Amino acid sequence: MNVTVIGTGFVGVVSAGVFAKFGNLVYGLDVDPKKIAALNQGRVPFYEPGLEDLIKQGLQSKNLSFTTDYPKAIKDADIIIIAVGTPSGKDGQADLKFVMAAARSLAPHLKPGAILAIKSTVPPGINPKLEAVIKQHTQVDFFTASLPEFLKEGSAVYDALHPDRVVIGAYDPVVSDRLLELHQPLASNKVVIKPESAQMSKYAGNAYLAQRITFINQIANLCEKNGADIQEVVAAMGHDRRIGEHYWYPGLGYGGSCFPKDVKELASYAKSVGQNDSLFIKIDELNEKRIPALMDAFAAKIGSWKGKQVAVLGLSFKPNTDDMREAPSRKVIPYLQKKGAEVIGFDPKAAQAAQALISNLKTAADPYQAAKGADATLILIEWPELVSLDLPKLKNAMRGNVFIDTRNQYDPREVRQAGLEYLGVGR
Fold this sequence. Notes:
The protein has helices at 10-21, 33-40, 51-61, 70-74, 97-106, 127-135, 156-161, 173-182, 195-226, 230-238, 259-272, 279-302, 329-338, 351-357, 367-370, 391-397, 412-417; strands at 2-6, 25-29, 64-67, 79-82, 114-118, 142-146, 165-169, 189-193, 309-313, 342-346, 362-363, 376-379, 402-405, 421-423. The chain is α/β, with parallel strands linked by helices. It folds into 2 domains: 2-193, NAD(P)-binding Rossmann-like Domain (Rossmann fold), CATH 3.40.50; 229-423, Rossmann fold (3-Layer(aba) Sandwich), CATH 3.40.50.720. A 6-stranded parallel β-sheet has the order 3-2-1-4-5-6, sandwiched between helices. A 6-stranded parallel β-sheet has the order 11-10-9-12-13-14. A two-stranded parallel ribbon has the order 7-8. Helix 1 crosses helix 3 (51-61), helix 9 (195-226) packs parallel to helix 12 (279-302) and helix 11 packs across helix 12 (279-302).
C-alpha cells in the first residue's frame, strides 16, 4: 500500500518505519525542513532504542522517505495517518490545531477512496468535525477512522512490532478491512470497534495505569505511618490474580508525554460533560502534589536541603529515552535549588536536554563524578546504570552518606552495609 504518516515526532517516525518494514511505500510528512533533512539522512532527532536502525533500513530499501511536500505525499496515498501533536490547552483540553491544520493541508490532494486514520490522541467524537473541515477543500469521497497508538517510550520499536493489541475504530467494513490488511504482519489481537470507542480506549488505558501509580503512592504514604514496607505489600497483593504484581510503581508519581496529558484531558472532558466529581480530577490533583510532598518529607528526615550538595541521578522521565516531558527532575531540581541546595545531575542520554530546560543545572560525565563531594545522592530514574551502582565507590565519592532511592530499586540492607543511610518510598 501507499501510506503517508503526517507528523514526524515520536509516534509518527516509529509508525512510518514499521509500515515501511512491512513492505509498504511510506512517506513521513512534516512541515519542519530541518527535521525532514535529518530523517532522510537516517538521523532521528531524539533517542529511542532501535529506531535509527529501523529508519535506515527503510531508507535503504527505498520503502521509506520523508518530505515537506503535501501534494507529493498525499496524491497517491491509500492510507493517510495523522500523528501530529495534540498538546493540552490552558483549560486542560486537547488542542486540535495541528490536527485541523493537517486536515486542511491534505484535503485538496486526496485521491478518491483514501482512508484518513487519526493516530493522534484526540477526544472521542472528533471524526465528524475533521470530515467537515476536509469537505470544505475537496469534492472526492474519502473515509475516516481511528487508529490509537499504545507505544511506550524506551521500547517503542518493540511495542510497534509486538503490540498487545491493534485497535481500529471504523464504521465501514471496507475501511476496517483495509486497516486490518495494513496490520496483517502483526501477530496480535486486532480489535475493530467504533471510532469513539477506539479514541476513548486510549484515554481509558492511560488513565487506569496512572490510577495504579497514584493508588500505590497513597498506600505507600500509609506504610510510612505504620512500619509496613510497600514492596512487601505489592508482593502480597500480586498473588491475587485479579490484581497482579505488574505496574505498581511507588515513587514520585507519573510523568512523561502521555499520562499527565491524558489524565488532564480526561479530567477536563469529564467537566465539560458535567462530571465535576470525576475520579480523574482527583488523580491529577494528587499527582501534582506528589513531588513537593515527598521532597518535604525527605527534608524532614535529613534536616534541611539548605547548604547541601545533592547528586541527582536520572534526568529524563523514564529509562531509555531523552524525553524530558513531565520528567521528575524538572520539579525536583528547581525545588532543591529554591531550598538552597547545589545540584549536580547525571543522565546517560538526557543531560544536554535537561540543561536546556532547567536553570543553573550542572551535569557530570558519570554518577560517581556527580556524587563527588555530595551530601546526598538522589536516584530519580531506574536507568540500568543507576540501579547497579558500586555502592562503596559511591560512598567514597560522597561527603555525606544520604542515599535516596525514589524508585525503591535497592535493598536497604545492602545500602546500609556500604555505609549509607537509606531513604526510600513507603519503606
